[in-house]
Specification:
Length: 301
Amino acid sequence: MPRPGGESEKLGARYEGVWVADSVLDILDGAAVSITVEPFEGAEARGIEFTKELSDGSTEYHSAKRQKTGNLWSLVDLASPKGGSSILQGLVAKLRTNPRGVVVFVSSTTPNELNELSERALRSQSVAAFGKQLEATPDLKRKFEDKVLPLFEQNVADAHNGLMRWRFAGGPEGELIRRVEQRIRKGIGRTDHAEFEPVTVRLLINELIYKWFGQPLCRGPILEWLSRYGFTEKGTSPDPHFVDCVERRVCSYLKHVEGELIDPLIVRSESRKAFETLRDGDKRRIVILGSAGLGKSCTVA
């Protein structure tokens, strides 16, 4: 657990940087369209580090806090004012402003009470059912009424709806780093196919973020930045070893089938259609079906 002061701030900044890198990888994977780090100024920025625009048109508001020094994140902690506003107040404001918005609270330690409220809201198909869920835990119900409900102007239906639009993520810093670097190994490679340490790409991503503060960062600039340093998405630059392997497999298959082919070859419309579909269409797999002896192997060859 970090000590108060500068150490906590430095560790927190690194933790936030790793989480931002994870969201940048979401852009490359197609799950997100863009992120904007430090998107607002003044009151609108309170409680969040960045926004993420998803491919379905919705917006996520990310608040990354490595952990609270000396304690877990309780509702009291989250609702305690700092600089005129609390973390909880800032996040609820995003939910109330954007009906399709989702708040993502990221920390190495889960805010257990807030998480419990969110889970109970998700399990409740109605406001009445949510009320019954709270009745079973008087202490949680009291904290909900004291710390959460006032932020929704005492409207239980709005609070129920808002709590369903929370997501909790993160985990221990070491595990988060390991996961992000696994994603880098899986999705990014060197243009010269040389080996590299994934931390290099992770730090490059963080450096790019500094250049894009307050501006939406999308796929194009990310790939352009990585290419400057010799990195690209895997699959966009064929690995010569992989190409050689495919060619050997093709030759082996053809050698096995050629004995059944007629010379001159009979043109098969199915072969041409399959080839053109793979080359020009949006299909990545073709299945050729037929009874035994109809010539499926020859069609593939």
